[in-house]
Amino acid sequence: MTVGTLFGQLYGDGEMAAILSDRAAIGAMLRVEVALARAQADLGAIPAAAAEAIAKAAEALDPDPADLAAAVALAGIAAQPVVAALKSAAGDAGAFAHYGATSQDVVDTALALQLEAALELLAARLDRLEALLAQKAADHADLPIPARTRHQIAAPTTLGAKIAVWHGMAVRNRQRLDQLRPRLLLVSLHGAAGTEAVLAGHGPALRASMAAALGLGVPDGPWHAARDGIAELAGWLSLVTGGLGKMGLDLVQLGQSEIAELAAGFGGGSSTMPQKQNPVAAEALVTLARLNAGDLAGMHQALVHAQERDGIALGLEWNLLPGMLERAAAALRIGCALAETLAPRPDGIAATFAADRGRMAAEAAGFLLAEAMPRAEALWIVAQALAQVAGGKAPTLADALAQLAPGRDWAKALRPENLTGAAPRQARAARPI
């Protein structure tokens, strides 16, 4: 992903960038070649001395990616110049390097190695996010706060219940990660057309040996052109950033000046309006989510893969996937920082409740009245009470109902803390997996 130095700490992530770097990709490809050579030597397909010479050459090899760029541009795939450099470095043993494999086998197996490290990073951050949100949900399980539907105040809920919604998305994404890993982190070794014709019947044994050496799984068949595992990963990355984008948008709206019910992170100041604290981190979560959602369409385009291999589809994947991974890492890093600093603003919450004058309790009032009269009559009384509040004839909904339907302590019945329903329980149910 190229976001430049200026925006690198906002929309990028240094740890993920290192995992996906050109040097890391080259190193992963060399690991694959060593694992292949040793597996072939164990089966007697190449001399054992050649395998060790290849391993020794690979260990010492550290080509500058810039020196390989022109060759990659001609070949259309990164493995070819890396393999050429390995063969040259291995001397006579180089003739046995890359024996029977195709460049896509090396690129895809190396990608699986890089993805294994990338997913470890994302899983660790996701675990931290879950724990932080679970604690915040529990801390604020009973704190009433207005719920909003369609951008309008609806009814009371609790801050903990709001946070539990974000937490639930994180938990489910963690579960999805465990489910997709076995379908994604796989060896690729099926040769030029996926038929493993030149592997002399050793294909299954070679794949099993390489998988064991590299810590990867064994696929059911060639996946040069079957990119559903990669597309599933892209979908998961968009789910992760999308969930965090929802959290970010909620934080932006709950922190805006005229609401000010919640604070999280440290805002960026305006160059000319000193009263402002811009919600930069929360905004970034929304931006990252929308960028990944856009790139997901491109990754699904890459599923439309012609015949046994298609450089057009692969080019889409190579261009889009690294950015999606880095954005997910950035979003999780930012999300954790926001979750850690998240805090209610009691004055803002109280001001919203006061300004509402009890109208968000209208639904509850209707059901309370319906206990003693037909529901249609109950709703008519509530409508009249709301009209009195709107017309300035009653300061609050409770006051209006006290006139229209006396005999109940409406002020107590309609207190926000008495109308949160299952929200406190939902908040306390938030637990890291």
From TrEMBL:
Any coiled-coil regions, as ranges: 112-139
GO molecular function: lyase activity
Classification via PROSITE patterns: FUMARATE_LYASES
Keyword annotations from UniProtKB, A to Z: Coiled coil
Domain of life of the organism encoding this protein: Bacteria
First and last residue of the signal peptide: none
Ranges for domain Fumarate lyase N-terminal: 17-288
Pfam assignment, any one: Lyase_1
Keyword Nucleus annotated: no
Family named by the database record: Belongs to the class-II fumarase/aspartase family.
Protein name: 3-carboxy-cis,cis-muconate cycloisomerase
Organism encoding this protein: Paracoccus versutus (Thiobacillus versutus)
